[in-house]
């Protein structure tokens, strides 16, 4: 009952007396001192190593909404991994608000350690210098984008090019004898600066911050080759981040250089990544240190280090960074109950005096604790404050997450000592939590919690009957961080081809109703039993009745969790929910799956009500919130004079129509943009308070909705968003009914395609194409939703799986082709939707899909390791939908 208790108890406690800190001595306390300024908010923890594959994988929405600041990635045309080529991902990253791309120049070589050719060290270095010259010359063609490039000449040189291995310079580690590495650094530094005098160079990029880095700084200073950015890796702990930064800053003082910007360009382990309650501990240390840092690359590239799901969906980790990136102003002192100790409650907080708003992010502990805001300035906040409390749950590495859950929204009286205490009850250590503190007292009715009752049931505690059972674990733990996080640390196997297994969960629910059920599960896409069908199918029953067939999520390795969602109708009281490998009415399981847990939550009016996005919590440009408006829904509202804007990151569970209600207090007008598309709609607003309702086609996952003032000063209150249907009606076209040319053909090999048919072998030349004629009722922008599959994977030389994002060159009515990237679906029998906007004329429009292999940057060579596919994905069907309607 922990989840249900957390929601109910938190809301109840916050509604009661909460001034001061009395009576909290028995509980752990996270204390946020709003009077102690610890520096301007930096946002540096939102970095990624190999997290961006190319334009569209992940989507620009995901990059911008994550507030991604830095990316470290491979040299253009490097053969280390498919995609993530520096100069291909540079424009979409920068255009989405990114700051710097760190180019791993060494990744122009295959393998790790790097396989640089030559009979001896000088020959190898000469070959590398020639490749460095070519890389810099390519960067110089990038126009304004080149200002966002930072060159990283060497990666982990102490164990690699200047280490002791077969592929090293001379099998002598520079940690013992640095002369050859130092000389190489100097040569390469001058080579880069000679070609690009404005270049920024980062190093030494060691695997840890060795004591020998001080000697490197001494040499660099003496020879006038000090790096522009100091880089190293922290595959350790958040505590080590703080310790290492302090240690390095002392080195700088001792040597007399700097202070230099720092990028710790690898941090975190499998056990941490994707888990908001773990990653927030790293975020707090990185933000406190005011450095940049990049999430480590242990798995597949292009998914923001297990933050992105498909092309445009975010998991819990993405929403954590979305919340972190919306912090502003300056950070304030946060005192944790166990300062700087991993796997305990840790946090980061900001105060923005202009917005009159404080935000806190924290997590890492299960159970209860008090969150205390001290020294609340009455000039900023008044005598009462409005506290909105949200939970950002873990949703798995490949599990989509909706926007954070609203646990409570309350007005609190500030105590005589200038503090308020928020009693957090029943926290989950895998979740992160956010509190937004604003001035209170405007008379608005607080919003209700967005969930009423929920419960988690662990698979290892369920009853299994039949053959083949396995209780797997413990998985990732603090002492085994290389393994993946798992709820309860254990999972259950047994539901597979040929099994008669039944996994039974005994549940008890508080009332009659419909309940949302999420099954957290995983199948390894390359495992023998899984390869035949793809998604493993199992059978759900409630009390032996109402059978449903579920297809469970695929992943790139075992223990990579996603969730399959459905609904069940339950009466108040006890029930048995079973997952079985056989069903007398529906069939048998094909594949092999492991089950982590099921989540059950009541689908009542709190869940089905429109999602609320308060304007005062949005990303604002050219304006600030005000808290004096009577009639506002939240603590305040946002005036939008001409040109000022409010941007909202809105979740949609699937591609399709939603009703978006723009609640305002009048005063002017504003326009709407969706995912960067200016909408051809009447302006929102008016003279008095009101609501403008529009129907928008939202892409599954993350949508960027921007409201921009156009006349006078519209006072924007909030957006309310709910899925709807009936206005923006899609027209569906089966790919097999299109016109096929060349080698493109219809296949029946993938039974999970609609009607069991799809089109394959599009590409490997423009002659092999699919053409579909679609009809638009009116001219303008439309959403084109492509149901596709893609499981191409390149041979790897390392621990990273190397799936390939296939592409299609899409031409509308014979116009210039637009290249669309499609991330892996993990199996050709596993179909996902991807939506791209297109401009259609009224009547019939011709869509043509082709593909051909993309050459390397200079256009004269091709990748020799099968890392650039010449093929489009398998296409199942197309749907065409108007983008918006009033």
From TrEMBL:
InterPro entries: CBM6, Galactose-bd-like_sf, GH
Domain CBM6: 455-601, 731-881
Protein name: CBM6 domain-containing protein
Keyword terms of this UniProt record: Signal
Gene Ontology MF, one: carbohydrate binding
Superkingdom of origin organism: Bacteria
Signal sequence segment: 1-24
Keyword Lipid metabolism recorded: no
